[in-house]
Amino acid sequence: MAVSRSSKTAARRPAKRDGKSDSKRDDGKSPKSATPSEGGRLKIPELLVELEEAARQLEVRVTYEAMSGELGAGGLCKVKGQWRVIIDKRATPGDRLSILALALSRVPREGITLTPAVEKLLTEVKPRAMTADEEINELATGS
After folding, report:
1. 140 lies in a domain?
2. CA triplet 78, 82, 87: central angle to 5 degrees?
3. Which residue among 4, 81, 92, 106 is the one 20 to 30 A from 27 at the CA level?
4. Residue 67 belongs to what domain range?
5. In whole angstroms, what is the distance from residue 117 CA to residue 124 CA?
6. Angle of helix 44-57 relative to helix 116-125, nearest 10 degrees?
7. C-alpha–C-alpha distance, residues 60 and 103, integer Å
8. How far apart are CA 40 and CA 97, in angstroms?
9. CATH, residue 103
């Protein structure tokens, strides 16, 4: 007996409960991510795109390259007077976000407009200034 294509598709699709549409999850929340103005959190890929746009505004070149060795997954450097962030192309999206956020937190941001989510992230990840004694202690202990 031949089964029509539409009945195969319907068999794979979960049935709607109580007339609710497929775009709603069981908790009643929409699957789309909320914008920061709505009080929600952006997802990692969305934040990564916003950070890449911030880097473009700051004239910081971001490249994803194959890296080898044990030095890490990338970071900030200055090449011929231009800031550059090199990130291992095999890094997870979370690692990419962390590397880029930390790098951009160290670059002066005067004169550009960033989204509130990006501004908050860059402020939160910026390393605190250390005194000379703290720096010497950290180097001596290796922590």
Report:
1. no
2. 60
3. 92
4. 40-125
5. 11
6. 90
7. 10
8. 18
9. 3.30.2010
Place of tokens 């160290």: 106
**pTM for the whole structure:** 0.61
List strands edge to edge, sheet with 74-79. Answer: 61-65, 82-88, 74-79
Phi, psi of 38 (to 5 degrees): -85, 0
Number of domain units in the chain: 1
Q: How buried is residue 18: exposed, middle or buried, by Cβ count under 10 Å (0-12/13-18/19+)?
A: exposed
Question: What is the pLDDT of the chain when averaged over all its residues?
Answer: 74
pLDDT value at position 62? 96
Residue 21 lies in a domain: no
| pLDDT at position 133 | 75
How large is the average pLDDT for residues 3-13?
Answer: 45
Q: Which range has the top average pLDDT, 81-90, 118-127, 129-138?
A: 81-90
Regarding predicted confidence, which is higher, 12 or 48? Answer: 48
Give the integer Cα–Cα distance in Å for 137 and 39: 41
Give the residue, 109 or 15, on which the prediction is more confident: 109
The answer to the question of residue 80 being in a domain is yes
- Which residues are registered as beta bridge partners of 83? 78
